[in-house]
Design a protein that fits this description.
Largest sheet: 8 strands, mixed
Distance between the termini: 36 Å
Shape: globular
Structural class: alpha/beta
Number of helices: 3
Length: 213
């Protein structure tokens, strides 16, 4: 990335704090944040620029990057759609402690957290969160706007669709596919393919309900 550009963020609460640590620890400069409401606590002492959809946002972001710090997959998808529609500059944020293979690919507006591991030939889409200490093994494919939670593990050749939430400490055996919009509960062990729009939990993981999308 261009080191002279500042990074502006959208969203400024829990998940944003993790992303900000990764940005600042690399010596990069944060220009401020966009959000619907001012953060009274403001732990990183950032300047507030209001709603990202304000008319003058393009002038603020000229020659700078913008990054979505939003944990909810659906909301993150909408925000990134807005960013792309305006032609604003995007980037990936990869924590300096993450281990990422040179043969892996990482999409735009994707975050890779502390001590995460992404191995050879893995393909990570746009707007993805690979959270703290998650393991993405060789040749996995992670669809756009999905979230792999802290300490989760995907064995080799696992495919996650779009907007999948793969919970804290969950495990997927090699070669399985999890469909779009599905949710895998914390600590679950997934040993078979899962269709789109379903919630699975347990060890081994079992379907508990469908989701409407």
């Amino acid at each position: 990335m261009n080191q002279e550009k500042k990074i502006f963020i959208i969203g400024y609460s829990g998940h944003a704090y993790v992303v900000l640590d990764s940005i600042l620890e690399q010596g990069l400069v944060v220009g401020g944040y966009f959000a619907k409401d001012y953060n009274v606590d403001n732990p990183y002492e950032l300047d507030f620029f209001g709603d990202e959809m304000a008319e003058d946002v393009g002038q603020i972001l000229t020659n700078h990057y913008i990054f979505p710090c939003i944990g909810d997959n659906k909301v993150r998808e909408r925000v990134i759609g807005f960013i792309a529609s305006k032609g604003f500059s995007q980037l990936a944020i990869i924590d300096k402690t993450a281990l990422v293979s040179e043969k892996a690919t990482i999409g735009l507006s994707t975050f890779v957290g502390k001590n995460a591991c992404i191995n050879s030939l893995a393909k990570i889409g746009d707007g993805v969160i690979i959270n703290t200490a998650a393991v993405i093994e060789h040749e996995c494919v992670i669809g756009d706007f999905s979230h792999v939670a802290p300490n989760a593990t995907l064995a080799g050749n696992v495919t996650l669709g779009k907007k999948v939430f793969f919970g804290v400490g969950a495990v997927a055996k090699q070669g399985i596919t999890i469909g779009d919009n599905s949710v895998i509960g914390a600590g679950s062990v997934v040993i078979s393919d899962i269709p789109a729009n379903e919630v699975w939990v347990g060890n081994p993981a079992k379907r508990i309900k469908g989701l409407n999308h």
